[in-house]
Amino acid sequence: MKYQFLIFIDGLVKPFYMMMNALKWRGKMKKKEQHFIVLKFFGLGSITRIVHVMNTIGIEKKQVTFVTLYSNKAVIDLLDLNVIYVKTKHPFVLMISLFKLVLQIWKQKTTTILDMERVSNLSGLFRLIVGIGKHCSSFYFKPKNKNTRVQSFVSLQNKPATNAIAEMFNKTYACPSVKYNTKEGGNNKIFININAGNYLLQRRFTLSKYASLIKELHDKNPDWHFYLTGAKPEFTFVASFEERLINLGVTSKKISNIAGQHNLSEFVECLKETKLFITNDSGPLHLAYLFGIRTVGIWGPTSSKLVGYQENEQMLNLELDMSCSPCFIHPKSQIARYCQGDVTCFKSMNPKEMASKIIRFVESEKYKVLIE
């Protein structure tokens, strides 16, 4: 489903959401309640980040049930989460699925509803319906958190998403420490992700710059082998990038297009065998961080400070601190508005400087990093 179409539909739903929100029929949160229903319909990366926060703040998976689209089944299975699926094959199936879902949630008496969609009228309306008689929490873009008898609002304004997610669970997030095992990470496999899913394609680092970056890394480390990743529908796009690399002078034997060759679980297992993963802001970035893979994140319209992770021995963030950055803060933000769609934050990056930072990052630690 196209992003702009979702925004349009979301706007149509707003009057109904405002009307429902004015009614005071939700319940008060009880301290003894330890089961949560998390509404997160979109975003492999967002679901993964929630699980990372849960692990960090001590929320067990058995305490949480996710409500999400059936299209997220691969990541739900991978992370072994409790789930209630919303099926959207066609409108009739969707209506039946939603009706069953509402009844299923209503039967759970001691449950708190956590709406973790980023300020959506659609999910907000759904939250209000399933949350009748229950305490609800949701995100909003105002300076401070707000608590009422029946609802809690957690601010996302100028706050890392990891912190806000923890606050949803009434906890405080602290960046976890990293530890090392004694196994040397001596292989030469470098995984590259040039994709960013179908949501917010502006997160893709400029291809010409990306190719130049890999050429710099190849020239300084000729023994490195670059594996270009992606989903099956992205194979052709990745293949064209492979050709671009060869034209730049990267040895063809040192490039492998593995887009579409692995399911999500297999992809993660492959990541665990790499020296390094270089990626745009995307779902695979969050998976890599969750599973302790050394990762380089390339950030443009989005920000590592808001939707990513702090730098440490496992994570290197490459981004420019421009006056207009980040331009994607709110789901309805106008991307690259100040640069007239030019995405200057990407185009201003210097591949040579980026390559130098990556090499220093790799050489700074000879051991594979694992998250506690």
UniProtKB/TrEMBL annotation:
One GO CC annotation: cytosol
Keyword Glycosyltransferase: yes
Organism: Aquimarina algiphila
Keywords, comma-separated and alphabetical: Glycosyltransferase, Transferase
Cited InterPro entries: Glyco_trans_9 (IPR002201), LPS_LOS_Heptosyltrfase (IPR051199)
Entry GO MF terms: ADP-heptose-lipopolysaccharide heptosyltransferase activity
Example GO biological process: lipopolysaccharide core region biosynthetic process
Keyword check for Transferase: yes
The name this protein goes by in its record: Glycosyltransferase family 9 protein
CDD domains: GT9_LPS_heptosyltransferase
